[in-house]
Structure formats: C-alpha cells, structure tokens
Known about the structure:
The protein has 14 helices and 16 strands. With 388 residues, the chain is of the alpha/beta class.
Amino acid sequence: MKVAVAGTGYVGLSLATLLSQKNEVVALDVIPEKVEMINNRISPIQDEYIEKFFKEKNLNLKATLDYKEAFQGAKFIIISTPTNYDVNKNYFDTSSVEDIIKKVISMGIDTTMVVKSTIPVGFIESMKEKYGIDNIMFSPEFLREGRALYDNLYPSRIIVGEKSERAKEFAELLKSCSLKEDAIIKYMNSTEAEAVKLFANAYLALRVAYFNELDTYAELKGLNAQDIIEGVGLDPRIGTHYNNPSFGYGGYCFPKDTKQLLANYSGVPQNIIEAIVKSNDTRKEHIADMVLSKGPKIVGVYRLTMKSGSDNFRASAIQDVLAKISAKGVDIQIYEPTLKEDTFEGYRVEHNLKEFKTTSDVIIANRFNEELEDAVDKVYTRDIFRNN
C-alpha cells in the first residue's frame, strides 16, 4: 500500500517511519533541508527510536517537496501539518491542514484523507460541508516529544473518527506496524474524536497544574513538597505518575489545546478548563517572583527545552518566566546547546557552559542535569524527582 504523509514534525515523521516498515511511504514537507535529511536517513527531530530505525531498518520511505508526487496513488493521505493557536482569533489556525485538503481535491484522486493534526471540535464536519467532500476523517495522536515513534510502536489506544470499512482498514494499518498485539482500537465519529484529543490533553495539563500548585503551597509554607506529593500519590486512585513539579506546562500541545478547548466551551458552563489555563500563568508568575526574591543581577537560563531528550522549546514555560524576570531589569543569559546564534529573542546566548555557570548569579533550570552539580548552590529548580 502507498501512504502519503503531509508534514514531518513529531507526528508525521513518527508515522512515516512506523508505516514505512511494511508500506511505501512518501512524506511531504515544505522545507528542503528536512526533505534532504530524511532521504539521507538523518532525523530532523530528536527522537531515539526514529534515529535508531533510520540507522538499522530498511524503510520504504521517501521525502519530497512535490505534493503531486506524494499524493498520487496513495490509499491514505495522513495530514500532520502544524495547527498553532491564534490568540487574536481565539481559535486554531488550521490553514495548513486546509491547504492540503485543497491540494488533494484539486488532483481529483481516489484516496482517503486522515487528519492527525490537532483541530477544533467540529472541523472535519465543517470541511465536508465547505468543500462537498466525504473522503476525510480524524484520528487523534497521543505522542510524547522525543518518544513519538515509541508511542506509535506501543500505542495506548488507536482511535479513528469514523465507523466504516475504511476506518477499520486505517486502524489495522497502524496496528499491523506496531509491536503491541493487544492494542485497543475504538471507532467513533470524527467530532467526538476531536473532543477526545482536546479533553485528554486538558486532563494531563490539569494534572501538571495540580502538582505545581501543591508545590507552590509547600514552597511558600516551608514544607517538604516531595513528601506531600509521594504521600498523596500513594492513593491508587491518584498514583505516583506524572507528578513532578515544573515551571509550568508548555510545548507543542498543552498550551494551545487547553486554550482551544476553552474556546470550544463558548456558551457552555465551565470552571475547570479556564482554571487550568489561569493556573499555568499563575505558576510562571510565582517562579519569576521566587527568582527575583534572590536579588540577582544576572540570571542564567539553563536550557529552553521543556524536558530532557527533546530539542523543542516552542511555547516552553521557561521562556515566559525569563520574560517576566527580564521585565524587572535583570540581565538574562541563556545556555542552550541547540542554539548556534549568539542571541535568542533579544537575550544573550552563552555557548560556554563553564562561563555560563561562573557569571550567572542564579541559574534557573526547569529540569536539572548533572552538569549543574558543581554550581548547585546557584540553581533554582522545582525538579524534585529528577525526571520528566
């Protein structure tokens, strides 16, 4: 079977890699450098399993800049282009997804589009009505940054937004390339599947916000946050997972998905969803206040990435924290090995780690690393359990 994948971010590249084990996969992207890297089996994103598969597996995978080459003859066209939240429109910017839909329509080919990008509730139905089409459905992804291919190989569940034979064929396509024989498959309408994606991420964001607020309480009251978190987590209904405090949630999904869900609640009574968004802002304010209370002249920001094993720092919480600190007139310097430039968003980038540690009065680290051990007296972090 030929499968096309439009967009080679975490979602698209992990799916392209997964499916190319047993199928012909052509991945489409608009960035020539990414296309060249994929064709040379160099992963453009940091993901241990993708890098491993690129080196060790004989993948039937090709990347291209030509959408016609990618889409022609494809049984399924997976759409995994970025959909960022637009604060002005109070809605997802789905233009990249819609652009792919229009390209497929213009070709007049017999194929099924499967949207994997995160979209507003009701998007698929609106596209069907707008363009007079029926060959499109939604299938949410549930992946972690840096572990995307692993999560496709061992899926927690496979959800397809349609109750049809083609939906079954797509679900079996994913399952056949995974390593989890008992993977759960659930079929529902696309609108419900769209809601599943947003509500699942909102719950995870809620959990992050909850333990961050617990940590804020413990910090200001002079209590041992680790003991409290561990004691709370011993209740099996709560559990000891996903409980490590941070500077706030960020990254590709949580900030935009919680705001999109809140926008979808227009006209519907709610308190919790809005509170999740506000809680994250409050947490970042608190972190900035705690750093400023130490009276530093120079604050060093250790890594912009949200967690170890990731090369993404889009919408990372630490960027909002440093903006709040900088607004008070404190100098900022950043240590981020993935940055080659000497400045980032107007802040100075220090490429020498030793110099960074020496010249910083306070070092803020969302996630602690052993290379900070010799400067631990300068480090401010809430990374209690030393894990992501």
